[in-house]
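Let us work through a complete example step by step.
Step 1: write down the sequence.
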Amino acid sequence: MKSWTILFIAAAFEIVWAVGLKSTHGFTRLWPSVGVIAAMAVSMWLLAVAARELPIGTAYAVWTGIGAVGTAVIGMLVFKEPATAVRLVCILLIVAGIVGLKVFSK
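Step 2: predict the structure and record it as tokens.
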């Protein structure tokens, strides 16, 4: 269970850096860029730690899935990106895949 907790924290840092990319303006702003790069490093490190015990395919898919869902939801809530029915269904499909991997993995 510890590895799953670490993986979820890694995914949270992935959301942080993905959302933070917008504030870097293409890595032309120093401090937002430093923050994004630090969050990337922490996220990758925690993914690697979690992958010591979890299958890498599962760990990577869950990490990217949570990052994608979290980033999309924040995009809709904070940046007013469209929240169409089709987009929400697709996000739910990603969530279903993440839950499936968690339930049916070691």
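Step 3: interpret the result. The two ends are 10 Å apart (CA to CA).
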